[in-house]
Design goal:
single chain, about 450 residues, alpha/beta, 5-stranded mixed β-sheet, 13 strands, binds uridine-5'-diphosphate-xylopyranose
Length: about 450
């Protein structure tokens, strides 16, 4: 019942399916049962509430009952990143063993769909393998396996799930593929965009999709880093222009501090690890990852060149969430930056409209927490805008400390390029940065 599972369950229920939402985290389940979400996601809470009220969505810890009542099961467990970049399969292993135990006593043909993002071969090796081993039953005869990757984004998970641009059904068996296709057609209609393929291609589609988007971001960040050094250059003008070329397209060309979140960093790392394992050196993916990890150093470089020593400097961070409209700070570049600033002795104050609770869990008393923009900006010598929250676009310049001799604002998302920044040393990633006046 994470982002993918809970959103999928709520949308399927809204569209007429009876859905059991299973999780072994009882605290999380109790919250959901009381219509409280364990994370913030716009529009999801009312959907979950009405899905439960209609009786179509049943959150439960009772896997046995859920499987007994279900004909199709979606595995939506996390596949986090291990220290070495490889994928941690522990949740997938556990859930497929538990499913095997349930399938052992079932005499119906149940289809198991893997929605978790996994390297090629995983659905068959781990899920199919564990179910066959634990249940003693045979895939395609007694149960089916499919891979149905998910493309929803945090912050717009509800509309992404309600109107998927593509439904991928990966299966190596006609009977299974038909059952899954029939389900998606009854949920989304016969005109929905469905692509049927085999399991391994479905697994690869998800990795390729995320890798391409991440590469697009690292590409535009490379252009931004070049623009930092060229008088008159503006990355947004360049992005707008190249985005009109239909072969390129306008999306995912917003330069910034680098991509974060629960998917891109771990999926690129997992894909690289997988490629290395099969004996192919994925130099493009490695470059994407390297550019992304380098963005925080570009920011640190600008700060130290402009401000000199950061020891004792009062620095405000605007935004700790990895992007707007979420309280998620996983792999947030902002958090990585804060750790570097603290290590150099800066006094850091943080502000975020939604993510402060999660930020406290990561940073405890290492930083100060500002509950309003006004207190965030007060007495700051340097403000770094990290997250693209809409409310930061309209920061009133009078909020800036009036008697500040030299307050610098580093705008990594260029939200304030058109604001009146009189009296502020305004610097934007992707625009020329003059270092010598610092
Ligand atoms: C991503 C994929 O978009 C989604 O299809 C997949 O299912 C899960 O991973 P998500 O991580 O929720 O979704 O957010 P996304 O909107 O893709 O943003 C990821 C990161 O890239 C954020 O840190 C965001 O700020 C950054 N980003 C995105 C940019 O820096 N520039 C852009 O132009 C777009």
């Amino acid at each position: 019942m994470g982002f993918v599972g809970l959103t999928t369950a709520a949308i399927f229920a809204k569209r007429g399916m009876r859905v059991y939402g299973v999780d072994n985290d009882l605290t999380k389940l109790h919250m959901i049962k009381r219509s409280k979400l364990p994370f913030f996601e716009p529009g999801l809470q009312p959907l979950v509430r009405s899905a439960m009220a209609s009786g179509m969505f049943i959150p439960t810890e009772d896997l046995h009952k859920a499987i007994k009542e279900s004909s199709i099961v979606f595995i939506c467990v996390g596949t986090p990143m291990k220290q070495d970049g490889s994928v941690d399969f522990q949740y997938l292993e556990q859930v497929s063993i538990n499913l095997g135990k349930e399938i052992e006593s079932s005499d119906r043909f149940i289809v198991i769909c893997v929605k978790s993002t996994v390297p090629p071969g995983t659905s068959e090796k781990i899920v199919l393998g564990n179910i066959e081993k634990t249940s003693g039953k045979k895939c395609n005869k007694d149960f089916g396996i499919a891979m149905t990757p998910e493309f929803l984004r945090e912050g717009s998970a509800v509309s992404d799930s309600d109107n998927p641009h593509l439904i991928v059904i990966g299966s190596n068996n006609n009977k299974t593929a038909k059952i899954v296709k029939d389900l998606f057609v009854s949920i989304y209609g016969s005109k929905s965009n469905i692509l049927q393929t085999n399991i391994v291609s479905a697994e690869l589609i998800k990795y390729a999709n995320n890798s391409f988007l991440a590469t697009k971001i690292s590409f535009i960040n490379t252009i931004a880093n070049i623009c930092n050094n060229i008088p008159g250059a503006d990355v947004d003008v360049i992005a707008k222009a190249i985005g009109t070329d239909p072969r390129i397209g306008p999306q995912f060309l917003a330069a910034g501090p680098g991509y974060g979140g629960s998917c891109f960093p771990k999926d690129i790392a997992g894909f690289i690890h997988y490629c290395d394992d099969i004996g192919y050196d994925p130099i493009l993916l490695k470059a994407t990852d390297k550019v992304n990890k380098g963005q925080v150093n570009i920011i640190m470089d600008i700060l130290t060149k402009k401000l000199g020593s950061l020891e004792g400097k009062a620095i405000t961070i605007l935004g700790t969430a990895f992007k707007k409209n979420t309280d998620d700070i996983r792999e947030s570049v902002s958090i990585k930056l804060i750790f570097q600033l603290i290590a150099l002795g800066a006094n850091v104050k943080v502000h975020d409209p939604l993510a402060l609770n999660n930020t406290r869990l990561a940073l405890s008393d290492k930083v100060k927490y500002a509950s309003s923009l006004e207190s965030a900006l007060k007495d700051s010598e340097c403000i770094i805008l990290m997250t693209d929250w809409d409310e930061y676009k309209s920061i009133d310049r009078h909020l800036f400390q009036k008697d500040t001799k030299k307050c610098m604002l580093l705008d990594t998302r260029r939200l304030l390029v058109s604001a009146d920044m009189q009296g502020i040393d305004y610097v934007a990633l992707g625009r020329p940065i003059e270092i010598n006046d610092g």
